[in-house]
Amino acid sequence: MDSDGEERSRFIRDAYDAVPAIGHGRRWYDLPYRGLSALSRSWLGQRFPLSWRQALNFGVNYLIPFDEHRRNIAWSRDDSSRNLTVPDAEVVENPAIWLVEFFPPSEFERLKRSLRRNSWDRRRVWSGIGQGNQEYLERSRGNSGSSWWRLGEVHSATASWYHPDGVTRRLPWRFSSIELTAIQIGGGLTAVVAWFRMSSAGSSCVNSVWHGPHEPRMVMRPGRPRAENRLWAGLGVTQQERASLHDAARAWLAEHCPGWFEAKSVPQPTIDLMLLREFDPTDPQADASQMRDPLRALGVTKSEFRHWVSDDFPRMLLESVDEGLCPALRNCSTLWGGVPQITSEIGDLQFHGGANPSGLAGYVAMRINGLAVLLGVSHMIDAMSQERASLRDRARNRHGRFSGKRLALLRDDFLTASLDLASVERDVRLRNASHSSFEEEAEVVVRDSPALEERLRLAGRDAREPQGLNALIRRNQENLLAELLEADKGYREILAAVASMGASIDTFRMGRIALFVAAVSLLVSAVALSLASYSEETVISRLWQYLTE
């Protein structure tokens, strides 16, 4: 056994010496565990009904995490496989977040109300240096206006600088300012990109949790609880802290400018700018293995083998977050790298605020909107596909008895979804064919990482050819939209047939009701006629007299 294996064995032995296996002690869970285990294995327990035996096994397994939790607390902090070890000199900052929200035809009126309510453009209109947002929006949706324009900028009262036509509002403590930009895609789809500048406290809050002490924890959830050691606890709380930045930004945007994602209860797509003080992921000599767990805690898991790079963002990597490995982070991408290497590559950053994370955020902000919208469209199409599947699966329950009310609800859902889908498909197809209606879009290339290229070279193999990510995304978008349109056509034909059948059945039911009303009317008329008085006697009295004589 090698030295690493011997050391690992020692860690395990010491932990079990400190906290014996469950059932071998006098802790609160040992006696119930021994009793349930003995009963489940006994002659009597083997003859219990299946549901009883399952309950016994559930009880036994429910107690095990409590024993694991105690052992995790006693486990050595020197075991790197069970502790999150972040280099002391490494610092991470999150100076900016970009969110994307979309406004297809179904959300157009909400966008107009948001612009009217927030008055982000009042200083611009008052000073006469530009049109109001309502005018820009109406002309752009009519294909006669600007392809993009600034909706406005919102500053915190404690911000260190102000935009001349911005407005001052109370913002969450994580943010110092928010800049909103509208981008028109075709005639029926408007995107709003919100750039959240972080305050000093907001920029460093993930770093504080990342470096903080991570103690084992019990995660209570439906069913069996889960015991997490220091490594898993550190991964979870750090990712949750980063997710809290997204949640705060999404909550603000949902309150002040709600759109399609908010209406569908889907998290708006985000892009984080995440900057490290020392580690450079683009350096072939960098020891990525030592940073694997710390980077995973930040939500970065794909940089070891494949890199998404762009000339617009030198020495930075773009990466979509793997939600399977980072469940707290949803609809999220990361643009990240090392500050010294990035600033050295870019050069002069005085125009953007200097060679610091805030200056780099300004540099990125001038180049990222087009790419953010491209990625956001993909998230929107994925959400449309899921919504379409949900509508399809609910359709049977909605019209199971051909209820007119249920059919109307189903028809409204499909009509809204079909209108948005047709508009988005047309606008995205035109956008992909010509970028004239789009802000300049940073081109991203997917290639093997320098470390992987070196491994392939030593193995005598060639690296894979770089591939343009933007073109691949556009092809996928068009293919998915074509599939959705084809499915939508079939759904609408089925809905038309169902509506026709429902109308026929409703007509039949109305006919039966009319016959019933006519029968009741005839009966009432007969009764009234029989009770009618002719001189001194009624029809009934004469009939009775005739029958009794």
Q: What do these coordinates show?
A:
This protein is of the alpha+beta class and 549 residues long. The chain is 52% helix and 15% strand. The chain is built from 17 helices and 15 strands. It has helices at 3-18, 30-41, 50-74, 108-118, 122-127, 133-141, 200-211, 230-256, 260-263, 292-298, 339-346, 357-365, 369-398, 404-433, 450-458, 469-530, 539-548, and strands spanning 92-103, 148-155, 167-168, 175-185, 189-198, 217-219, 226-228, 270-276, 306-309, 316-320, 332-338, 445-448, 467-468, 533-534, 537-538. The strands form four sheets. Strands 3-2-4-5-1-8-11-10 form an eight-stranded mixed β-sheet, with helices on both faces. A three-stranded antiparallel β-sheet has the order 9-12-13. A two-stranded antiparallel sheet has the order 6-7. A hairpin with a 6-residue loop joins strand 6 and strand 7. Helix 7 (200-211) runs antiparallel to helix 8, helix 8 (230-256) packs parallel to helix 10 (292-298) and helix 13 (369-398) runs antiparallel to helix 14 (404-433). It starts with a helix and ends with a helix. The model has no long low-confidence stretch (mean pLDDT 85). Keywords: Membrane, Transmembrane, Transmembrane helix. The chain crosses the membrane at residues 513-534.
